[in-house]
C-alpha cells in the first residue's frame, strides 16, 4: 500500500474512533425528521413527494390547506406512510387546529436543524455554544431569489447589519488555536453574489461586475475596518465565471489589493475546477497578497445535470461521484503546494476527503493551524468534534434566515443527506465499513466512462444511433422498423463562456461591416433583381439600414409560381431520403453560420443574444426533426396483415406551397415551414416578413448552399398585400403555410376557400395566428419562480412572441404578495439596445408597432389602472417601456386583444374556478400557464385550460422542437403543431395502394410491414 494511502487510512480510522466515542445519529435531532429521512432513503417516490411537501408547507396559511396538500401529496405513496397519512388526514379533519400546527412545527424544527437562527440576535446564542466547543463560524444570509434591485439592496443592508452585530458580539473572542490567528478572523461572512444583483446575465459579466462592485465595496470596506473576513460563495455554474472575475477585479483594486481576508469557493465537481484554481493562484501571486479558497465538491449537482440534459449539452460537472472525490483530492494538493499565497479551507463531511487533506498537509509540512475544515451547521456533529479533538481548526457554516426563504437551502441539504452517492448516508445510515469509505476514489472511477461520464456516454450512443439512421440512404429498407425517437435537439450556445461571448461580439462586428448589402429574389434557381429595393432598418437605431431586399411585384410572383410548378414534377418523385439529406445539410450550414445569423437577428429584429441564438437553434432543430420525421413517414406502411392481399398506406406531396412567415422568429419559423414543405416533396415559394427580409435572404442562401434544386425553393420578398394576396389566390398554389396576425390569417383562410378556374386541388391552409396568453397563479405558488418566469414570459423579446404572457391571473389571496415583487422586478429589467449583451428588453419591431402599442397603453390607462411603467428609455429606437396594468377586467380591450408588446395585464380573481373561466374566456387558445404546488389543482388545470400549449410552473414561451410541439386552436390557429410528429402530414395527401397477391389460391405467408417507395422509374440502388 502506498504510504499516503496508509496515512489516510490511519487518520480516517482515528476520526471514526472519535466519532464512535460520542455516538450521535447522522443528524443532531431524532424523532420525526429521522423517521422521514429513513423512509426517504428507502423510497424514491416518497422522497420526491416529501421534499415537495416540505417546500410548499411554509407558504400554506390555513390548516385546511395543509391537510389538503398532505392528502394530495401522499395519498398514492405506498410504503406505510400512506396508512399513517390516511389516519393523520382523518384525524386532521376532525381536529385541524391541532394537526396542522403540529405538522408545521415538525417541519420548522427540521428546518431549524439546518438554519442557525432567524436573525443576527437569534444566531449569537448558537455561535456562543459553538465557541465553547472551539468551533468557529461563517454566517450566510438565506433568502428568496432576488428578482429586483430593491430586494438586492435589502440583502446588502442585511449583510452590513450582520457584520456590525457579529463584530460587536464577538469583540473579545480569541482564536481557538491561538496560533496563526491573523489568517482566520473570528467574524467570517459568506456572501452570495446572486443576492446582490437581480439582473445577472452570464453573457454580460462586465455589467454584473460593475453593479456588484458598487454594492460590494461599502461592505468590504466595513469588513476591513472591523477586521472581518468575506467569502464569496459559489452558486450555479452559470454564475461561476462572473463570480471568479468579480473576485479578481475587486480585490485587484488599489483599495483592496493588500487585504488578505477575502476568500472564494472552488467546486471540485466541476471539470473546470483545476484550471480555475490555478488561474486564481496565478492571479494571487501577481497581486502579491494572501487570499483564501474554500474547496467544496459542490451543492448543485442535481440542478446542473438536469439543466444540461434539458439542453442536450455536456454537463459541466463530473458524472461519477468518485471523479468529484478524486478531483477534490487533486485540488487539495494544489492548494497546499501553494500555501505561501493561498489559505485553504476544506468544506466537506467526507472522512476520506478530510483524512486525505490532513495527510497531504502532513506530507508537505504544513502546520494544522494554517488551514481549516468547514462543515455545515446541523450536520455531522461528531465529525466536527473529532476534528477539534485532533487539534484542527473547525468552522461551521451557519445560515441565518426565516423558514420560508430557507426552504431551497433545506431541500438541498435533505437531498444531500439522502443521496445514494453521499458519504453521510453511507457512513451513518448504511454503516458501510470504514475500509470501504476510506478507499482511494481513483480506484472507483469506472474506466469506460471516465472523463465523459455515463450520461455523456449514453448521449454519444444515442448519437451513434442517429448516425446509423441518417446515413441510411438507400430506398430499400423494406423489413426494417421505422426509426425510433432518436432526434436530439441542438444545444443552445452557452454565453457563460468568454469564448462564445467573443464569437458573438466578432459576428456583430462582421455583420455590421456588411450593413447596406443588397439581396436578390431567388426564382427557379436564379438570382432576380428588380428596380425596387426595400431597406430593412434596425429597430434600435432606425437611421441604420441593415440591408436591402429586392421587392417583387406581380410578374416575379407569377414567375415564382411557374418555377415552383415546373420543379414539382421532378421533386415530387425524388426519393425522400434525398430530400431529407437536403435538410440535414441545411442544418449543418445553419450550425456553421450560427453566430453570424444570430447577429443579423440582433440588428434586424432587435433580439437579445440568447433569444437570437434560440431562434437559430430552432431552425436547426426543425431541419433535423423534419428530416427524421420524413424518414419515418416516407416508406409505405402495410395497413393490415391479411393473407392474399397487401395494402400500403403512403403519402404524396400536395404541390406548390406558399410559405408566409412573421418577423418575430425570422429564421426559425420561415425555415420550419419551408423545410416541412420541401422535405415532403412540395415545391415552395417562401416569403419572409417585410420587417425581416435580410434574415429571409440569409435562409435562402443557406438552402442554396445546401444544394436545393432550381425551382424547389423560391424566395420572394415584397409587400404581403400585393404579392402575398396574388400568390394565395393563384390557381396553381395548393397549400399555404402561414404564421402571423389573426387579421391576415383569417383573410387567407377565407380566400383559400374559393375555388378558382383551373385549380386542381382544394387549397390546404396551415394557419398559426396570435394569442392572448394567460398564466394563473395559485395561492400556494412558489413566488420566486412565479415572478421570474412571468417577467420573462411577458417581457422577453419585448413581449413580441405569440406565446408571450399578456394576462396574469392572480388569486386574490396571493395578489398583494405577487404585486409587491412583480413591480420592482419589472422596474429592474435592463432595457436597451440588444447589441449589448445582457439586455432583456429591446425596442419593438417598427414604427407602426410602436404606435399601435402606445395606443393600447392609452386604452389601458382609461380602462384600468397603470400599476407600473418604466421611465428611462434609450433616446433612439422604437422602445416601449415595460408596462403593467392592474384592476383589469376580462371584458376590457387590453384583456381581450393581442397587443404584441411589453404590456402585461393583471387580473384579480376569487378562486381557481374563476381563474379558469377568465383564462378560457378569450378568442385565443395558444399558450397558457399555471403556477401551483397543489397536485390536484395542477391536474385540474392540465385538464381544463384551453391552450394548445399548457405550461405548469415554468415560462409559457420557449417551445422546443420535438419536445413541445407548438400551435394553438380557436382563433390562434388551425390546430397544427409545428415541431410535432404529425406536422408533416399537413403537407401531404394520403394514398393507399392495394394488390391482390393471390395466384390460383396461393398467397405469400407474410407481407413486409414496410416497402420501398412507389417510384417510377425505379431509382438505381
Ligand atoms: C462549509 C461548507 C461550505 C460550502 N459552500 C459551498 C458553496 O459555496 N458552493 C457549493 O456549491 N457548495 C458548497 N458547499 C456544499 C458542498 O458542496 C456540499 O455540502 C458537499 O458537496 C457535500 O460533499 P461532501 O464532501 O461533504 O460529501 P460527499 O458525500 O463525499 O460528496 C457529495 C458530493 O459529491 C458530488 N456528487 C454527488 N453525486 C455525484 C456524481 N454522480 N458525480 C459526480 N459528483 C457527484 C456532489 O458535489 C455532492 O454534493 C459547502 C459545504 C460546506 C461544508
Could you characterize what this model shows?
β3, α10 and β4 form a beta-alpha-beta unit. This protein is of the alpha/beta class and 1021 residues long. The protein has 35 helices and 30 strands. The strands form 7 sheets. Strands 1-2-3-4-5-6-7-8 form an 8-stranded parallel beta barrel, surrounded by 7 helices. The chain has a 7-stranded mixed sheet with strand order 23-24-25-22-21-27-28, sandwiched between helices. Strands 18-17-16-19-20 form a 5-stranded parallel sheet, with helices on both faces. Helix content is 46%, strand content 15%. The model is unreliable at 449-484 (pLDDT under 50). α4 packs across α6 (96-114), α8 runs parallel beside α9 (205-226) and α21 (498-513) packs across α24 (594-605). Residues 233-234, 265, 267, 269, 294, 296-301, 317-321, 323-325, 347-350, 353, 374-376, 397, 416, 421-423 line the site of flavin-adenine dinucleotide.
Short key terms for the protein model shown above:
30 strands; 46% helix; globular; single chain; alpha/beta; 1021 residues; binds flavin-adenine dinucleotide; eight-stranded parallel barrel; seven-stranded mixed beta sheet; 35 helices
